[in-house]
Amino acid sequence: MAIASPSTTTFSASFCCKRAESTHPTLFPSILSTQRAHRLPTRRFAINSRLNSSKFCGSLSPDNGGSEDFEQYELHHGFTGPMERRKKGSPVYVMLPADSVAKDGKVRRVKVLTASLRALVTAGVEGVVMEVWWGVVEREKPMFYNWGGYLDLVALARRCGLKVRAVLAFHQHGIGPGDPLWISLPQWVLEEMDKDPDIAYADRFGRRNMEYISLGCDMFPVLKGRSPLQAYSDFMMNFRDTFRPLLGSVITGVQVGMGPAGELRYPSCPSQELARAWRSRELGEFQCYDKYMAACLNACAHDVGMREWGHGGPIVAGNLMHGPDNTDFFKSNGGSRNTPYGEFFLQWYSGMLLLHGERICREAKTIFQGTEVDTSAKLAGIHWHYGTQSHPSELTAGYYNTSRRDGYLPIARMLGRYGFGLCCSVFGMRDVEEKQTNPVSSPEDFLKQLLLAARVCQIPMEGENSATFLEEESYEQVLKMSKFFSYGPGNPSFAFNFMRMDRYLFEQHNWARFTRFVRQMSGANIFRARLDFGGDVHRTSMSDAVQAKRCIYILLRKKNQTHIQTSKANLILRPPSLGLCTYSST
């Protein structure tokens, strides 16, 4: 586990862009030679934690000796206090289908969705996670917002007695126009990208990534006279003004997207490949070749008197499937990442990502201040090179995290300064399974490092699963990792977002496992937070779950019967199952 002492002196190539309150374009000031001081309180104890040792290995948990290491880690980073167990349960939220609101701004499959939400209530689910897509709301023209479908969706959740967490998604979804779940950036943004391709990220091969606007042009008026940061801020303000009566009561959380897949990272691997990149062990590519990122890198290199460092990023490898030790930059012994140039580049690259996140956090804090909603940001769960010294796939994504350097603690500190929580996936993944195909992968150790950073900085945590899981072992793994985070004094809150609601969740055996998991997470107090708005909000019972699943089946049976009558093919209907539910795009 990569933990560096906060007092360790390191080379720092600071940010090339001003940390200004204004969202207008700024010039590149001189690079700072010393690390910006955002330190935790002075340490009371000088303790050498085993987490800093290269000999450290194994699993940490309150039940296998992890509490001792946990306490040492907290004392080492200036966090002290008596140890005690968490008594309150953790709420579970369920993420809605990505296409719950269609491109025309209307809620899709209202009857099936209503039945599903009522079933979730009977399971004791706290609420739902609703992705609010920039490419749907502000689709045709800048500053013309269509919130109709999302207002209807929130109203539906409210009637069912569920809370809502909104994810403001400034990225695309899906792999292309042929994908039934395809949601692009707003059309007018794509038009600007056609005029100026450098608005999109680019790697050293000139390949463009259109998932998210390059952070290099955060402050430049590249979007019809507005900067990307201004466009994000205007969107958030309009969201706040539109949903203001519901903020803090129905809508209790807002997660602000900060990159591809909503995660604060570079698109080192396209999101459609990221789901399988850990299988192929892809290294990723540095995304610093659009003209805005390149100009910033050049200016920073000029300011430190090393102009030759400003001509682009390091050459990773001719084949991105190579092992780290087969590359000049990432290899363990003699890798150029440890040279002055390598350290300069990685500090600049990760610093630009941190600055991007800080700019958005600052805007969001100002916009949502006083609304009583919790704000959060999401990090990527990149674990497939965690067992190496260089952690190459993390470095190309913008996380300067190696066996000797903690790259997540600075991000946690930044989020803590603005009152943000932290969200991350991989909660259901286990080392024992992943190491069978990739010996250097370690999702558990990666997640533990992130959880410890969040604990030290006292920021709330939201867990997610990487892909829909319905096995008992995966649920047990989530419980284990949530317990690891929740152990200790005055601990910040923890919640879990289940990814995501689909037809398989409501099948009989899967539904039984899921409801048991929710009870375990919440401490069996499954009706502790029902909303009280009067009207048609009411406490539900298990009979409502049965009725909801019957409603889903009847709707599907009618649809299948209609399809059989109009089709020439001989179709065989699936045997009746009260748990059958579908969220296909048709």
Task: Characterise the protein shown here.
The active site is at residues 263, 464. GO terms for molecular function: beta-amylase activity. This is Beta-amylase. It catalyses: Hydrolysis of (1->4)-alpha-D-glucosidic linkages in polysaccharides so as to remove successive maltose units from the non-reducing ends of the chains. With 586 residues, the chain is of the alpha/beta class. The protein contains 16 helices and ten strands. The chain has helices at 66-76, 110-123, 134-137, 148-160, 187-195, 228-243, 271-280, 291-303, 340-368, 392-397, 409-417, 431-434, 443-456, 472-486, 508-522, 542-566, and strands at 92-95, 127-133, 163-169, 200-202, 208-213, 251-256, 374-379, 420-424, 461-464, 494-498. The strands form two sheets. Strands 1-2-3-6-7-8-9-10 form an eight-stranded parallel barrel, surrounded by seven helices. The chain is globular and about 60 Å long.
Count of discrete alpha- or pi-helical segments spanning 4 or more residues: 16
Structural class determined from secondary elements: alpha/beta
What is the number of strand segments? 10
Strand order of the largest sheet: 1-2-3-6-7-8-9-10
Low-confidence stretches: 1-15, 17-71, 73-87, 524-542, 562-586
Helix coverage percent: 25-40%
Q: Main beta sheet: strand number and arrangement?
A: 8 strands, parallel, barrel
Average pLDDT figure: 79
Strand content: 5-15%
Q: What is the H/E order?
A: HEHEHHEHEEHEHHHEHHEHHEHEHH
